[in-house]
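Entry for zinc ion complex. Fields follow.
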Amino acid sequence: MEEPIFLEPVFKNYIWGGDKIKTYLKKESPYDITAESWEISTNKDGQSVIKNGEMNGKTLSELFNKKEMRKNIFGIKTETLSEFPLLIKFIDARDNLSIQVHPNDEYAKKIENSNGKTEMWYIVDCEKDAKIICGLNKKLTKEELAKIINENKIESYLNQIKVKKGDFIYIPAGTIHAIMKGCLICEIQQNSNITYRVYDWNRIGKDGKPRELHKEKAIDVIDLNKISEIFNTSYKNETLINSEFFKVEKIVGDVNERSNIECFYAMNVVKGEGKLITHNKEYKLKLGDSFIIPANLGEYKINGNIELLKTYI
Ligand code: ZN
């Protein structure tokens, strides 16, 4: 099967979501309020479904678990993995997300029987003066941090950073963080859904009660030294992130590339439109589309006034 794999997303209607996934990304969410669109996912909490070619209708997870196809489609590097390594989403924050932290692999394996979660955000669009929270704004001891969190006073100890379209930020596991209102983000992360909420702005959930917090575990895993830097992508076709968990490049049309037998490429269109051409076939691409370049695809071109994130391990 030498063809790109296009994916149908899974939508989530968390209370802080908005309408940009429908209006800006032009996706057909069934919800009035859409917080997230899980674009490339084999996670049990929301699985991407293939919408083209021979595998039409199957989940990405089914494909990944076919031993005889793993190497050809997902690449040599994935052969020894017990699960698909990535989870990629679009996130529309009409309101602030909770102040949260994710555990690293070591803690998550021991306590949650799951992977940890390191993530990266790419600002697809945002309102003027939009901000994000990343890291603590002063040096604290664990005891001080525990006291502040338990007294619900964390808000004044957080590093708030202004963002603009095209910025990206790397959030290693253990970094306290929050996406703030007015940001439309493409989030690339390890395949995990473990979140410890520290503070939820005294907000009431859909059931009329405050959402659950996980202060004790959060205090365990918050790294007191983590403050992330923000970067802007003003160059073409550059590497944004090169970490042990994932690598992310930005592609700006037009490019001629080759697939990589070591690993598939997860592609997310973050601006504009264009087309993908491979094996004499054309596929239309537009903002919000997500697809996979299989390891054995061969040569392909991406043309148009278009920008994509290309992620691999
Ligand atoms: Zn997070």
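NOTE: The first helix runs from residue 20 to 23.
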